């Protein structure tokens, strides 16, 4: 028999009691717009077929979990015969608007059709959205138990190009990584086999994108993938049974693993397995990963302030013409605060080195550093202070550290070197998020896996690394321009990125050389400005030194005037690896950013895509100059009036970009 699940109303549910099955059961769930469909078949295993209105997209084969005591969720024991004991099916539909103040869209539609399948002691939830689908197991097993394995096996139909970021750790240690790497972009058939792939991972088929990830990870390992030549299979770290601390930062690194993935106690839900689907534009505006996140744990969020931050680590405290010795000292950070206050920048970040690295004690400061004086000075100037710390040292004294530094007036932590996503590391991250929220502290998580809905659950987490960002230019000569045009479609699909843009030392492809102490960017200065609009970053760094920003105060003022959160994102043009042009709306104003590849590009920006007839705006654009191809630090700023009939001709240099601000003339 076949059950077609048609779902039409908000939160309408019905229950279907299923007799003991004697043949394969089939269930179809359609997306709210009717374009996507998931066909679920249940016999001795569970399989799911994902399709759009024209073709099969992907198959999820033999979805199951195995407990350490041999019990199985989603598969009949090999010693038994017959079908899975499906007891009940509950279908439902949701169509509502949710507030998402620090998400790429400040309000978003949560609309899906779904079903719950209840078995003996466990169940399976399936949701189908307009831009993908997700499934997860949940347990009703009483008492304590352990998860030994989970089978995630996804085969993409007619796959061609793959975009994979492999773990940057050695084989055998692949689950201990910084979650940063460039993307392999080539035929799926030529992708590395049995090598850990970070999620999200993207495969193209028929001109569309299939993007695979996990979401709502809690007390459970994050999901990597491995390609076996036919399908992509989930790969998971086990719980470490032995760790060691690595000097000088006191990171914790597993040196031995148990044979279990997670330890559980009683009823719980396991992470979502997610398959997103869409064209290039839709990946830049999708809220699928956000809405799949658990509902917020913080009732009041008005204390959470997004913003920009002046930051000293990338530029190696490269201050010129000052009357003190630059370094990790009180005078340096007061100077950074003065700079931030002058340009209306909300924060400064005090990065590594403010506490003695060999002390293993984040309550001490290095000689010459009066942290209380710096924080008090920032308060007087209206600039908040964010402190860097290693995750494991913070966690060791979590309650005391949050209590002490919040009472001192510190606004948050930049938490670094997590470098794992096994179940114990995930537990630690959630402990830090929860305790920081309790004491009114914002977070920027580095050495960190993708957001995976954590920014919905804990909105005090404003930004995440887990991206091959601008810091790589301190030691790598690899192609950052192509990377800039790839990760927004994949890693950024999962949530915001702390890419740390804003370089004022800009080089052509030919002249660029990595320099740790005097870093620069590839491409033009206009591109660096554009990236504040193109990238999702509710806490956005200004990576270069105040000396460089003072030397070009016109550009710095333009950066400072750009928002970091918006009401709506509207991708105007998107071609993975080649071009991104993104418009974002804030109130009644529009902000547009565009970046291109290494080939110069003449771009005709048609404003009728976002401006309605009768609306008029005052516009200012910062774009590449005529000679930016040879002198990438050069740019021009132009002002003009704009309406629905305006088109803007923009010449983008190699590795170039532009940023445009438009304010209603009526205001």
Automatic annotation (TrEMBL):
Needed cofactors, names only, are:
Ca(2+)
* Record's keyword annotation contains Cytoplasm: no
**Domain Glycosyl-hydrolase 97 N-terminal stretches:** 29-292
Q: Does the keyword Calcium apply?
A: yes
Annotated PROSITE patterns: PROKAR_LIPOPROTEIN
Domain Glycosyl-hydrolase 97 catalytic: where? 313-467
Q: What GO molecular function annotation could you give as one example from this UniProt entry?
A: carbohydrate binding
UniProt keyword terms in alphabetical order: Calcium, Glycosidase, Hydrolase
Q: Which residues form the Glycosyl-hydrolase 97 C-terminal oligomerisation domain?
A: 566-662
Q: How does this chain assemble?
A: Monomer.
Protein name per the record: Glycoside hydrolase family 97 catalytic domain-containing protein
What are the top taxonomic ranks of the organism?
A: Bacteria, Pseudomonadati, Bacteroidota, Bacteroidia, Bacteroidales
